[in-house]
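For concreteness, we quote verbatim a single protein encoded this way:
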Amino acid sequence: MSVKIIIIGDTHLNSFKKLPKEMAQAIKEGEWIIHVGDYTSLDTVEGLIRWKGDKFKGVFGNADPLSIRKILPDKVILEIKGKKIGITHPFCGGPETFIKARVKREFKDYDVDAIVFGHTHEPEIIELNKILLINPGKGYLEKNSFGAPTSFAILTVTGTLQAEIINIAL
């Protein structure tokens, strides 16, 4: 039996009600929700907790206020079906390769199978030295954007890890 985890991040919402509809539907259908930081409103955190309870895991991001930093850690490890998933939101900018190296260093002593992270707003799934790295991209709708589309990731855990990016059209 597989476990479906919805991964979102960088939502930058002032209200949970503004979560994109496709993302909200996926969250309702998934067993778990992971948020990789930058909610920007406590209402968004509380909404995810209301929906998923103890099946919610999240970390705070660099854009999150103190009210969120008081209730969420900067990194956490979730273990599902024997697979360890590191969750973080790196605070630094710079080249994407630097961010990937940094998140890998964050979990070097934890023997993780996957690391999910945000900050760059660029969705990506890659494998680096047998660790699956997943960035779900940006989680807010933007009408005039030249950057990446709004997106989220789905991680399916069986005996293996399978991930995909879902883009949301305006």
